[in-house]
Amino acid sequence: MLESSLEKHIVDYAKRRGWWMTKIKDMSCNGAPDRRMICAKTGRIIFVEIKQIRGRLSEGQKEYHKKLKAHHQTVWIVDSITLFREKLDDLKRKDLEL
Q1: What is the count of structural domains for the chain?
Q2: How far is 55 from 70, CA to CA, in rounded Å?
Q3: pTM > 0.85: yes or no
Q4: Whole-angstrom Cα distance, residue 61 to residue 39?
Q5: Is there a contact between 76 and 87 (Cβ–Cβ < 8 Å)?
Q6: What is the arithmetic mean of pLDDT over 3-32?
Q7: 48 bridge partner residues
């Protein structure tokens, strides 16, 4: 599946579950994740990097992700709609346990 098709499926799935998805265009730095997800109910923010199967992160992406994590942000790297669904559904289960 092309990265653009995968991205569309991911955005549609997340929106149906109450997440607001925005495209990230950080002109000041290379390596920004593709999408930022914001949960309408909790305000939780998750950054999503979408890759084709066996796609690799660039050095700029690795560095950007490292900075986000240093600021206690969640970064997901997904290469399939199945993986994205699993992560989102797992997150929902964990939230319900709280």
Answers
A1: 1
A2: 24
A3: yes
A4: 23
A5: yes
A6: 90
A7: 35, 76
Q: Which residue segment(s) compose the domain that 64 sits in? A: 3-97
Pairing mode, strands 45-50 and 74-78: parallel
* Cα(25)–Cα(89) distance, integer angstroms: 27
**For position 95, what pLDDT does the model report?**
74
Residue at 6: amino acid letter: L
Q: Is the pLDDT at 90 greater than 70, yes or no?
A: yes
How far apart CA 14 and CA 9 sit, in angstroms, is: 9
DSSP category for residue 5:
H
Give me the residue label for tokens 């098709």.
5
Highest mean pLDDT (candidates 18-27, 50-59, 68-77)? 68-77
pLDDT at 98: 47
CATH number at residue 27: 3.40.1350.10
